[in-house]
Amino acid sequence: MEAMNDRVLVVDDEKDVRDLIRLNLRAAGFDVLEASTGAEGLAIAKHDLPSVIILDLMLPEMNGVEVCRALRRNPATSRIPVLMLTAKSTEDDKVEGFECGADDYVTKPFSPRELILRVRAVARRQPDQGVAKPSPVRSGSIQLDRGAMTATILGKKLVLTTTEFRLLELFVRRVGNIQSREVLLSEVWGYQANLDTRTVDTHVRRLRNKLGKVGAMIETVRGSGYRLNAEGP
User: Fold this and answer.
1) 82-86 and 31-35 as β-strands: parallel, antiparallel, unpaired?
2) Is 57 exposed, middle or buried, given 0-12, 13-18 or 19+ CB atoms closer than 10 A?
């Protein structure tokens, strides 16, 4: 079944939380799907292919980390943006959420308005529909096809989330130029406000790991941000 535009899946075992999110999402023009367990949420995601998934960490049957990993392993769901929404708010909790493939992380109690803004931001990261496909871009052994949303290194295809692809694309298009965390948050995540820079740092680390030896091309510029070094491996 093909995904519908602007359909959000909310996976949370607390009915009052789902009710609050559903009310605000619908007021903002989104269609809403709901699940109260991790297994149910995973099944709905595979069947309905929502535009965005709001996922609690502490869930019965399967916790949010397990669900997120399962989503990322499945080609049909691997690029659906996942926004973690949970009461677990330590730095380790956030890192765990990002490491399993989440695109964003919001802690409870939360502002419904901020949640809607973040849902819209991650939804905008999906591939554009109905527009001409741009030409592939290359930097060294990295080649990106924006139209197909694929990245390859020496012909080997990488498995990237939509956010990871957008992050790599920005580095490739601006090879050699330092990108501050604020610029990355604004242009990759779509956020204007300063957020926890762990969001950027964790995604850069994940991207480097997926690039393997070529990951060393993404350099940390202390006190400034990151840049892609074209002279790297």
Assistant:
1) unpaired
2) buried
pLDDT in tens, 166-213: 899 999 989 999 999 888 888 887 766 555 567 888 889 989 988 988
In which region does residue 6 sit, left (phi positive, over 0), alpha (psi from -120 to 50) or beta (all else)?
left
Task: Give the domains, in start order, of the chain with CATH numbers.
Answer: 7-123 (3.40.50.2300), 137-228 (1.10.10.10)
Contact 56, 86 (CB under 8 A): yes
